[in-house]
Description:
four-stranded antiparallel sheet, mainly beta
Amino acid sequence: MSVRKLKPITPGQRFKVVNGFDAITTSTPEKSLIAPLKKTGGRNSSGKMTASHRGGGHKRRYRLIDFKRNKSGVAEVLSIEYDPNRTAFIALTQYADGEKRYIVAPNGLAVGSKISSDAGSSPDIGNALKLSEIPLGTIISCIELRPGQGAVLARSAGTFAQLMAKDGKFVTIKLPSGETRLILAECLAMIGAISNSDHQLIVSGKAGRSRWLGRRPRTRPVVMNPVDHPMGGGEGRASGGHPRSKNGIPAKGFRTRSKTKDSNRYIVERRKK
């Protein structure tokens, strides 16, 4: 993984830092594994805007990702590809029977590598194993919360978790947020950290690139009218009151997690504030 800083031959390139894409091996996606992706513009099924500052952006097609890793056998990595729908890179794999599947690519996976999700597989980069079969201290990603659900944790670029302990039917995992929690040992996880760890170093350089990603200009709440936002209104340059969302929920330090949430008992240590 690498990033490139461009020469400032235009104002938009003065501070621009782009991905080097040296890990990418092809620019054409597998045709059988793409699906249309309809934009919502931040509107729900009844046409009401429920998410602000969304709309426009480049047309995309969704890549069908295998988060469940439920096919037995050994698969070969055919290519490492860019995915416009996520920050991580994806890998195209092919099984012995000819079936192709996309997976989220871990760091270090290369074309020609062999991966497996069978029981008893070795804990090598890209293999998916039950947490009960993974050695302690191993760096893992794409973790399930319920057996057979599919990966929901540590799927973003550069993220990883660590297997800390095993106790009966549960294992203890330290998540990217710093939270330590219990997860059923029957859940699957992929060995290795997620690819494209330099994603956090990218600088867009100009407002237009945000528009390409489907993000519209953001209006500061303090300059709105009272009817539009709790922080709006006031004569002159009013401070706007306490920082809060459009729905009135405080923005700094206010805990929104339910105290009676059932999964609270699985959290060993809360994330760092």
